Amino acid sequence: MLEVDGVSKRYGDVLACDDVSFGVRPGELFGFVGGNGAGKTTTMRVVLGVVTPDAGSVRWSGHPVDHPTRRRFGYLPEERGLYPRMRVLDQLVYLAELHGADVNAAHRAAEHWAARLGLREHRDTEVQRLSLGNQQRVQLAAALVHDPVLLVLDEPFSGLDPLAVDVLAEVLRERAAAGVPVLFSSHQLDLVERLCDRVGIIQAGRLVACGSVSRLRAGAGSTLVVDAPLAPAGWADRLPGVTVLDVHNGQTRLRVRPGTDDQPILAAALATGPVRGFTHHHPSLAELYRDVVGVGSR
Amino acid sequence: MTPRRTVWLVARRELRTRLRARSFLVGTAVSIAVLVVFILMESTVFGGERVTRVGLSGQAAAIAEPLTEEARARGLEVRVSTVRDPAAGESQITDGDLDALVTGTPAALHVVVDESLDENLRRALNTLVQREVLRAQLASVEDLDPDQVLATVADSTVDVRSLRAPDPTHDERLAMALVIVALLYLSLLLYGTMVAQGVVEEKSSRVVEILLATVRPWELLAGKVVGLGLVGLAQLTVVGGVGTVLAVVTGVLTIPGAALGTLLWGLLWYLLGYLFYATVFAAAGSLVSRQEETQSVLLPITSVLVLAFVLGFGLLTRAPNASATAVLSVLPPFAPILLPGRMALGVATGWQVMVAVVLMVGAVGGLTWLAGRIYAGAVLRTGPRLPLRDALRKS
Question: Average of pLDDT values for B287-298?
């Protein structure tokens, strides 16, 4: 189990992380969501010991993370980087060995992950000669090649084609099933929603929401789509417990706070004319995210 | 996994990458070729012109102008100076600040030299003496016996005294000294720069972030320095070994023992000098994020190396014994280039070598610590060139 406890880090005037605390359990896929510069990368770099926090600590199985433990972590940094003139397989073997694998195990693992991530034909190609997408696959293989006990992946899906996205999603699920805590960040919220057991939303360095998507939903009420074609603009603005999300083709999407009675809403809609549809939806993670970070309520 | 294994893994990658590279083979071949040409041209290279410094004491001061002219007629550039105290002049010769000290009257000149008197200078001085003697004979004798006059004149030559026994192998030693100075200069510059470029490559390609999530900064730095150092050592050994064998076989060098000694000392000083410079190169490299900025950040360090090389060539040919040369050759930034040269000439004393080694080891220890701190503080910070002050602050 990975525990991030009260981590703070300041760069000059910018508070990149402000008392960030969360945990990732064995076998859990934890999605890290937030805007650019929100503090995801800094938090991950703190976990990997690449950045020393000003305050707080990172624990693994209850103990502060030390160097030998960190060596068994797998890391995909935001700024991708490999030796440009090294061949794919050599690079993977080298990294596996640096992580403590013996020569034979390193070769086996390098071959395995190269094949798994569709790089078999590029094994002996210099990294700089690969397409960006394939370089990204090598980078992923580099994070996986030493059979890590924890995966920390910063934007692992960016730059991948749809097939590679599927392969990676499968790999992550498989690693989690093997008991490995997986922490990854992404801007593809649908993907996060689909994959993750739990989600942490970070904004301006603070973890503003953390929990399973369904728990986040429970606190957020529901999305109500009202199909009232004749309703004038602003018909729902005064209703208690209701926020208008958008109006499109006569359909008004409303965010209804938990515990709000929806019958007065229906009555208000009927007062404008015919109502052809009145449906509750679970808000998507994207909608929840906008709620939490306070934008998108137009 | 032990730090030693980590360092070795990093070093092994450097070794494999560099030894496999064609540039290594080409570089080694070119170095050997240059050395061969140098050996073949050896005699002409050292016959080069230079100024001979002659000190004149007492009545001998009168010959300043004729001596300069006579010497010039023989193709020898002479710079004369007046020496008040002959004893002081002798110590100047020992120190290499003077080439010859001339005392006595113009008709009976005495010359003091370090090892041997330059033949052209000897002839110039003899001419002056004989002219003076002839003048005296012509002036004093009434009934002149031409044969006797000629005999007297012919017998009048300059009296030469050497402070040290002449060393017939001096030219060979000088050649060895200059070769080892050049080889050390090139090796230190080349492999020091490679360390810096390697650091910048890892930084600019961002690979350093996944490396440092696994290994400690000092392990990465040590591995890189050790790996490249071994490549450089291998190259220097091959080039130096081939050069030595070739020079002995072709008869250019007749002192194989001294040649081997020069090579071995050269290798030791390469190691010391490399450790001294490589860590500084690495720290400098860690301050920048792009290959284009490497040259400018390395300039102060390469300047010191160039200075040591230029000083080495100048001082070893002119004044290997001068006290200034001795002091410089003991100081850490210059010792790895100057001292092996002076040792090849056989002019470095045992205690000088000892002091130099002690100073060097101390400097390497201090610099490694400092450079390690700069490197650890700077290597993960990308962007514009980092001021040294920021690098030293803990990240």
Answer: 87
Q: Which residue from B370, B367, B392 is spatially nearest to B381, judged by alpha carbons?
A: B392
B214 and A49 within 8 Å at the Cβ level: the answer is no
Cβ-defined contact of A85 to B207 (cutoff 8 Å): no
For B55-113, how does the pLDDT look when each residue is reduced to its tens digit (9 = 90+)? 998 888 888 888 888 888 888 888 888 888 888 888 888 877 888 899 888 888 889 88
Tokens of A255: 């965010």
The H or E element spanning position A226 is strand A222-227
d(CA B151, CA B34): 52
Query: For residues A128 and B205, what is the distance between their CA atoms, to the nearest angstrom?
Result: 10
Which domains are assigned to chain B?
Answer: 3-44+169-392 (no CATH), 50-162 (3.40.190.10)
Q: Is A87 on the interface with B (CB under 8 A)?
A: no
Both structure tokens of B17: 């990458």
To the nearest whole Å, the CA of A3 is away from the closest chain B CA by 18
**Which residues of chain A from 36 to 75 reach within 8 Å of chain B, CB to CB?**
45, 48-52, 67-68, 70-71, 73, 75
What one-character DSSP code corresponds to residue A126?
Answer: B
**Beta-sheet pairing, A182-185 with A198-203:** unpaired
Please say whether the beta carbons of A217 and A288 come within 8 A.
Answer: yes
Q: What is the mean pLDDT of residues A108-115?
A: 94
Q: Is the pLDDT of residue B47 over 60?
A: no
- The amino acid at A170: E
- Selection from A279, A153, A148, A289 nearest residue A222 by Cα: A279
Domains of chain A: 2-212 (3.40.50.300), 221-282 (3.30.70.100)
Rounded Cα gap, residues B345 and B169, in angstroms: 9
Percentage of residues of chain B with pLDDT beyond 70: 95
Residue B6, burial from CB neighbour count under 10 angstroms (0-12, 13-18, 19+) = buried
Share of chain A above pLDDT 90, in %: 52
Contact B213 A100 (CB under 8 A): no
Chain B, residues 365-394, CB within 8 A of chain A, namely 380, 382, 394
Bridge partner list, A20: A7
Chain A residues in contact with B207 by the CB 8 A cut-off are 81-83
Is the Cβ–Cβ distance between A221 and A207 less than 8 Å?
no
B56: which 2 tokens? 């004149």
Q: Tokens for A286, please give them.
A: 């994207």
